[in-house]
Structure formats: structure tokens, C-alpha cells
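Box 3.1. Reading complex inputs
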Amino acid sequence: MNTEISGIILMFILVVALALPFGRYMGKVLNLENTFPDRIFNPLDKIFYKLGGVDTSREMNWKQHLKALLLINALWFILSMLMLTNMGWLPLNPDHNPSMRWDLAFNTSISFVTNTNLQHYSGENGISYLGQIVLMLWQFISAGTGIAICAVLFQAMKERTTDKLGNFYVYFVRSCTRILLPVAFISAVILVFNGTPMTFEGKDHITTLEGQQTEVKRGPVAAFVTIKHLGTNGGGFYGSNSAHPLENPNYLTNTLEMVTQMLIPFGLIFALGYILKRRRLSWVIFGVMTTGFLLLVIPTVITEMNGNPAISHMGVNQLAGNMEGKEVRFGSAASAYWSISTTVISTGSVNAMHDSYMPVSGMNQLLGMMVNCFYGGVGVGMLNFYVFIILAVFISGLMVGRTPEFLGKKIEAREVKIAMLVALLHPLLILGGTALSSYLYSTDPVYYSSWLNNPGHHGFSEMLYEFTSSGANNGSGFEGLGDNTPFWNIACGIVMLLARYLPIIGPIAIAGILAGKKYIPESNGTLKTDTSTFGMVIFAVIAIVAALAFFPALTLGPLAEYFSLR
Amino acid sequence: MKKNLTTAIRLTLVCIVCFCFLFPLLIWGIAQVSPGNGKGETIVVNGQKHYANIGQQFVSDRYFWSRPSAVNYNAAGSAGSNKGPSNPEYLKTVQNRIDTFLKHNPGISKEAIPVDLVTASGSGLDPHISVQGALVQIERIEKIRGIDKTELRKLIEKHTESPLFGPEKINVLKLNIALDQINETK
């Protein structure tokens, strides 16, 4: 078989094979059970609790969880603003990069604290090493936040009646030390031995074989890149992200970065099955997500491997596929596979430039983010999916004339209203933002000409993509967009902020309210939720919500470009 | 609220120590025993240092050309062209690259030019070209350097990396260094 195709099949099999045991391990960690590396982690966690002043015995209800989460996140945002606007004169800045302007710092701080990692600066000359290391801290702890809040969801879904859902700080610390740290360490070591730099020295000056003078930017790359993927953060050390030959030197590191970014989103599905003792439910969720993923990834791989018809007309050999914006060492298949993986899970790191993908591929990347729950980001992907489960239970309950129940809890008007609001917020933020920017652009195309790198439909796609990426807390971009302006920095910052916290508050509120309700044991009248039929209902709800909300915008952008390209 | 705030501040400080100091230092320490000591893998030729993973610009006819680059292979930055597939200006650029290539490589048919030689990479620093990308340049190199075609083919074969997974490729810098060495030993 073609080595490019077998390469991507291997990537998928590897993730599933690793996520099954790792998901079980995460389930134990988040359910506060004993695990085999306790001997190392118990003392480490004790240090965290003691110095951090965490009262581990204090159980919180859902409101207290959210308060704790929002407060610590707000603190991180303030720290981040202070650091990014002052890093120019602080130590660890061998290349003398400047501090950020306030609007760029606003955007970047929100971006990294919300696990989005949208970057309106370029890593080579827009940030110091100290700044990079602080961003790396957000990459760890924003991912820890996501896993911790997902653990709260799992606790709330258990078959019991309670408002005590564990301690937020305990879940957070355990997620950081027992899940993120060990895997990040192993993957960083592999990266370092494959040529990814890990140094605090500045740029190197070299003379090329032809005698030109050029520079090579180095830095503490390996530590940054490893957590960027594991935590589904996605912000690159370098401007060109994982397309950069030092950030992602070969096919092995490409596979490693691919596997680590999918590991936790996959694993959490199986962790849910372990904690709730409902393996079948896990497999139903996995089935729905994987169906969605395959429906997006297969056409994209085919499209990219077929190449650009406009270039075929010029008569060159296009056997390698669409290679604009892609690296030879990955090829078009692995790049296409990566582009969909990174958009369905909200990583947003790229190993090829999304702006230069074919229109159908660009549309599928957009759809991955518009749906935002085929796997999804660490922790929050599960929260988004939970919203669709609630809607699906409600709709199918209505269809068969039974009281909607999920895991022994009655779903009533209040929960459905919250779920509907969260489901509608996502298109509102994306389409509202795109409408605003399109309107501004149309008022004065000359004044705003630096915004768009491409004319016509593709230019519209660049704006749509930026807001979709912000709204999905993804962070990838059609990077041709000239986005380091006050408008884009502030607009995307606000969208990222709302799109992170409201979809955390909503599902946790639903789960918290349900957890306090009376538990009704399953009977013959209960709608079975761990069947493939119910899986199809969830899929249909997701597809209908996404299609109705986003189809018109997709028609104006990628679809119109597809039909105009011959 | 007040209790949450003190916990938040103290816990954040612990995280700073663990993830901003200990973790990077640990990886940095391990990097000291890796190839290149964590500063990137380098090749030294005639006292000159080159980065094995960073592509270089080759525009002279004496060398195998690299792919086009949006940043001219200056690794102080990195970027792709970010041109959309239907952008008329971009398609014109590609056409110009084809024409330039044909001018410098007379006798080559258009169908023999692989797409990677006329499109820019994502990073602008792509160190590789496809095997066909090297083969199509043989005639030009033979004429200028006076190295026999079969020898050039052997050289390309030697430098072809055929991994178990992923595409076949050639590191242009390493290939050109070997090319210079052939001329020197003659």
C-alpha cells in the first residue's frame, strides 16, 4: 500500500490502542483511585496541596466549582497581561524582541488562558523566551482546567443524588501532575533526540553553501511543543507552527505530535465509561465522534492527494498532490489528516498552511470547528458533546412520547433551555463576528486591504475561519489574514473568552442540577441511551444544528470557491 | 471568595515553579546529551556550520535547487505563502516558476517537473525535495559540473530517504554538499 496512506492509518490505530489503557488510567486518576505510579505522584501532589493551601477534604457543589475555575483563570489572565507587556526588558530575551502592544497582549493572554492558542504574533520575533515559558505554563494549566472540569461532569453523571462533586483543585492538580506531566516529559525527550532544539541561546548566524548570510532562530522549543499538543493547545513556538523543521523535524515526530494531541480527547471517552461503569455508552460516543471525523477526513485526504486542478492545467506532474504550503517530509496525505485532526480536536496546531488547502478541505476544517465536539479539546470536547446528548435525549423523548431521562435523571425544561442556549451561542459568536468584519471590509475595501491575502470567496473564508477558530477555541488560522490589528485582536479576544467559559458553565450547570435530582432506576419505560440507534439520533442533532446554522456562510466561502475553480 | 483567591494565588505560584522552572530545566538537561546538544543538529563543511534540518536557498545552476520559499530560507522567520488555490496572482507566480525552471533546464518536458519544485512550503524552510525533483535537475548539473549522469543518479539514490511510512524525500543541503565533494576529489 502507498506509504503515505499506511502512515495515516497507523496514526489512527496508534491513538486508539494507546487511548484505551490511558483512558482507564485517567478514569482512575479522576475518580481518585489508586494507580501504579502513586509512589511518585502522592508526595508530589502533597507538595502542591500543602504549598498551594488546598483543603483536599472540602467537597464543592457545581457553583463552587465554577467559581474556583473562573477565579483562578482570571488571575492567570492578569499575570499574562503583565508579563507580555513587559517581557522586552525582562531577562531571557537574547534576541531583544519587544514587549507586546496592549491589544495584542489582550488577545494572546485570552488565547492561551482559554486553551485556544490563536496567535496574532510570530514566535520568532514577537516574544521573548521568558514570554514563551509563561505561555507554556498556560498550556499546561489551561489543559489541566479542561480535564478538571470534565472530571466534575463525570462525577455529576454518576447514579446517585448529591450536590457534592469533589474538590476542583484536587482534580486540577491530579490532571496536571498525573496526566499531563508524565506524557509531556516522555514526548519532549523523544523530540529532543530527533533534533528539536532545547536551548536558551539566541539566533545563530550562518553562511549558506552558496555564501548567503542567514539566521537560524533557536530556543526552548521541545518543552513547549510537547505540551502544545498534549494539552490540545496548538500555539507554535515558531510562526509556522509544526510545519517548521525544528518544531517538527521528521515523520516520526509528526506521528508523535499527532498521537499526543489526540490521546487525551480519545482517552476521556473511555475514562467516562470507566467511571460510570458504562462501557457501552463510551463506545456509542466514540462511534458517533469517529463517524463524524471520518466523514471529514476521508474527502480531505482524497482532495489534497488529487492536487489543485488549476495547477494540473499548467501541465506539471502533480502526483504528490497539493503541495502549496506543505512540507515534503509529511506529504499531502499526512498533512490533510493532520488538518482535520487539529480542527476536530481543538488543537489548532498546523503542519501545513490551511490557507493554501483546496476549498473542500478548507470547508471540512471549518466544519470540524463548527461542530467542535467530534472528540473536541481536552475536557471541553466532552462538555460540548454532553450538550448535544441532552438535546438528543429531549428530542427522542418527545418523538417516542416518553419522559426524557438520561442516566436515571429526568431532563426538564430548565436543562433543555440551557443546552439550547449553549448550542446556539457557538454559531452566534462565529457568524456575528464574520458579519461584522465583512461589513467593515465592504465599507472601505481600500482602507482594509491589508486584512485579506486572497481576493474573492477565499478572502471571505479567511475572515470566517478566524472567527470560527476563535469560537471553537481552536487557534489555527487562514494565516494570510492580516490579523494583528486592534479590531481583530479585540474582536477575537472577546469571542474566545465567551466561547470558552459559557460552554463550560452551561453543561456543568445542567450536570449539577441533574446530579441533585432524584435517581430513578432504569425500567422498561426508560429510553436506552447506550445503543447505536441513540447514537444516530445524537449524530443527526449535531448535523442538523451545524448544517442549518453554518451552511449559508459555507456557501459564500469555500463552496463558491470550489465551483469557481476548474 | 477570599479563601479561593489565596488558594488560586498560592497554587499558581507552585505551578510556576513546577512548569516554568523544573520542567524546562529537566528537558534542557536531557537535551545536553542529545545530538546537537539541544541546539539543533548541525553539519560542518570546510569549517562552516550548517543546520541539517533547515533548508537553504539554492539559486545557482551549479546546485540542486530547493523548493520556492515565501521567506527566502531565512530562518530568522518562517512562513508559507498563504495563497489560496484559486488566487489568480498566485497561479501566475506558479506559471512563472515553471517558465523559469524550463529556461534553466532546457530539454526538460513540463510533465517531468514535480509540483513540489514550483510550490512554496509551509515553513519556507523545507529542507527536502521529492526524488523526481532531484532527477529532473540531473541534466543541468551534468552540463555545468561535468559529472556523469550515472554517477549523479547513484548519488541521488544514495541520498534518497525511503521510510516505512510517509513520502520518499531527499535532503537538498546534504545532496549538494556531496555534490561539491565529488568535484573536489576530481
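In summary: DSSP finds 17 helices and four strands in chain A.
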